[in-house]
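Problem 3 from the worked examples.
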Amino acid sequence: MLLKTFLLLGEEGISDVKKSFSFQTRCITKLYERVFDKKYKTADCRQLNFHCGNYPKMKLLGCFDGFCQVLVPYNIQEFLEYPDNKKKIEILELLKNSLDFVIRGKNWDPNPFQEAYERVKELNYINEFIWNKPKLSPNKKYKAEGTL
């Protein structure tokens, strides 16, 4: 299986989706996935789900059908009070620490994960990409691209 998806999940009970931990972490995890271009071949894992919350210690619960579940002790309420620029840094560090735990537990090569981590920092935590194909103007002299 090829590992290519990483999710940080939180069960904080917030009804407004845009203020939830899972929603706010998605931008950095998607950026990490995009720069993690060397899809990592594993025996049993294609997606890592990091369940963050009030847990006593970090624990790998195991893998089922390619989805590996990891419990990560983390104070979500404190995170939600951070300013946006600090949230991005905190998300990447949380992802790195969680990945390091899994890498050690499964004896994986840490180099592709470290390269992706460094690349996210080089991009200054900005997840920007060109959406769809460039569009030509009616007279075909100009091109327009949508950047997200």
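Problem 4, a separate protein:
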Amino acid sequence: MRITIEGASEEFERKLLDLLAEHRNELAVSIDTAWDVDRAMGFLNTLNEDARLFVRLVVESDGHLEATVLREAFPRGLRGPTVALTYALKRGVKHGWWPEGTEAPVTVVYGGGPQDGWRQASAYGMSGEVLPVFRAALARYNATTSRPPWDEEAPSAFALHPGWAADADAPRALYDDPPTAPNFPDERAR
């Protein structure tokens, strides 16, 4: 039998744990650490743009991408996106979005043997079970967060607002009676 419980009260949780403790010799308790589309969406939503692009590139390459290709895509280095992936995984555990023990969706593949000491990543991969989940999550992410392409030049901060006349003065805050000195109620307040 498999049971999934979400959103239970603390009292219910305590009673359930007492019941489980009472029958612990008869039960095998495990936590579901597998990625599903909802967890993957939560993961993608917490990532910055570079880390999300990193995941997208690994997914689009069918779960295995050479590190040299990623280094070309990220000229400032891979440390930023990979650290963001690690922090997102830890953040999800901390907030209870997925259980502790959930495997990182993107894993590093090292070249060379252990005798080489420090080794540079040779590739990044995603397991066969996780790949279709993240492919579906990225498709959903694209459908829900798409923005129209911007094909114009960015507006100047100094340009007049389209609703103003060309000869209009820049808006100013106007005072009826601008003070010439501080408005202290009396001399002792200084």
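Solution to problem 4. Residues 94 and 189 are 51 Å apart (CA to CA). The helical segments are 10-22, 37-46, 49-60, 67-73, 79-95, 131-145.
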